[in-house]
Amino acid sequence: MEIKEGEVTVDAYGFLTCDPNKEVKAVHPKAMPVILTTPEEMDVWLRAEWKEASELQRPLPDGALRIVAKGERKDGE
Asked: Contact 22/63 with Cβ under 8 angstroms?
């Protein structure tokens, strides 16, 4: 995309990060994605003013995530 193109429509995405919790910090010490875990949190994220929605930018509590696999993938991907 170049500036001279003017307004364009693109498919793009991003994600909001926060400080890592204990489990994520062991793998990635700088940041983890913000994870919404309840329908109420999702509704706040989609509908609330930024002042309220920004309070969701926090790590999950330590112990809230579980490592389910380690090592190299073996399914050919």
From this structure: yes
> What tokens appear for 74 in the block?
């073996």
The answer, as to whether pTM is greater than 0.70, is: no
Rounded-to-integer distance, Cα 2 and Cα 7, Å? 10
Q: Average pLDDT over the chain, rounded to whole?
A: 89
- Beta carbons of 27 and 70 less than 8 angstroms apart: no
For residue 35, the one-letter residue type is I
- 40's enclosing H/E stretch is helix 39-47
Residue 68's pLDDT is what? Answer: 84
